[in-house]
Design goal:
The protein has 5 helices and no strands. By secondary structure, the chain is an all-alpha fold. The radius of gyration is 16 Å and the shape is elongated.
Length: about 80
């Protein structure tokens, strides 16, 4: 919220996308308890978790940018778009 106020952006245009992405904690096992529990079973390695996590993170970022440029713009959350 402070960043939005400092740079003159609408608060909702920065706070809402961050709130939508906060649940993406699957990049590495120490980011969430369920990931740590699954990692402790030795069924996959740290590099497997990273490959899956970084792929999903880029997909989530892409979807968030796409939504911010279309759906959120239609709802008035990002009235000027992102760029």
């Amino acid at each position: 919220i402070g960043v939005a106020v400092r740079f003159g952006f609408p608060i909702m245009s920065l706070a809402f996308p961050v709130a939508m992405l906060i649940e993406h904690v699957y990049t590495l096992p120490f980011n969430s308890k369920p990931a740590l529990l699954l990692y402790s079973t030795d069924m996959y390695s740290m590099s497997d978790a990273f490959k899956y996590g970084i792929t999903m993170q880029f997909i989530a970022w892409g979807m968030s940018i796409l939504m911010a440029m279309t759906y959120f713009k239609w709802l008035g959350i990002t009235p000027d778009g992102l760029f």
